[in-house]
Amino acid sequence: MPELTFDFVTLLLVVGGYLLGSVPFGMVMARVMGLGNLRDIGSGNIGATNVLRTGNKKAAFLTLVFDAGKGAVAVLIARAVAGEGAAQLAGLAAFLGHLFPVWLGFKGGKGVATYLGLLLALSFPVGLAACASWLAAAVLLRISSASALASALVTPVWALMLGYGQGIVLIVVLGALIFWGHRANISRLLAGTEPKIGKKS
């Protein structure tokens, strides 16, 4: 575990990470590209998978990039200013911002892209392994939620194998939050009713 010093600077970085994570890029892209209110489309989620259900691949791709980017930026800024401990706290704050955004009444998305982005910034090899795990599961299963759950499940193992033990607690916490956010998806997976990637609303 990195040393955690929660001073005023770290507090500002955490608050900044949360506010950055709260930006609902999926809704922004849907509005800018004239796709309607994302809350009224598909699952009503604000992430890239639901944006893809509009049929606009460009909007979905940009949502994915920006949602991942906000997690990475929060981590990189905090690390440059205050070190590894602050980077982990800011990454967690950005993730929580996506889940509970102040701009949307604390009702946000499931945080998968933000999770992958902040992992890439915290430890590029671990983040790359997490992304590869998501992609492999997506190719095999064609179900976004199952891919996210698979990645969250195996990433702590990747972290230990790749020598990022100092981040293992954070990674386990983030994975648990991903499982918590996918409760309804898990029920549909068990019932065999979870939609495939790219299925329009």
Please describe the structure with a list of short key phrases separated by commas or semicolons.
0% strand; 201 residues; mainly alpha; 10 helices
Can you tell me about this structure?
With 201 residues, the protein is an all-alpha fold. Helices cover 69% and strands 0% of the residues. The chain has helices spanning 8-21, 25-32, 48-52, 57-82, 84-99, 112-122, 124-141, 144-161, 168-181, 183-191. Helix 1 packs parallel to helix 5 and helix 2 (25-32) runs antiparallel to helix 4. The radius of gyration is 16 Å and the shape is globular.
Unreliable parts: none
What class would the helix/strand composition place it in? mainly alpha
Q: Compute the gyration radius: what is it?
A: 16 Å
Apparent shape: globular
* Fraction of residues in helix: 55-70%
Report the biggest beta sheet as strand number plus sense, adding barrel if it closes.
none
Give the helix tally: 10
SSE order, as H and E? HHHHHHHHHH
Report the portion of residues in β strands: under 5%
- Strand runs, count: 0
Provide the residue-averaged pLDDT.
91
Distance between the termini: 44 Å
Outline the fold blueprint.
Layout: H1 8-21, H2 25-32, H3 48-52, H4 57-82, H5 84-99, H6 112-122, H7 124-141, H8 144-161, H9 168-181, H10 183-191
Brief write-up:
This protein has 201 residues and is mainly α.
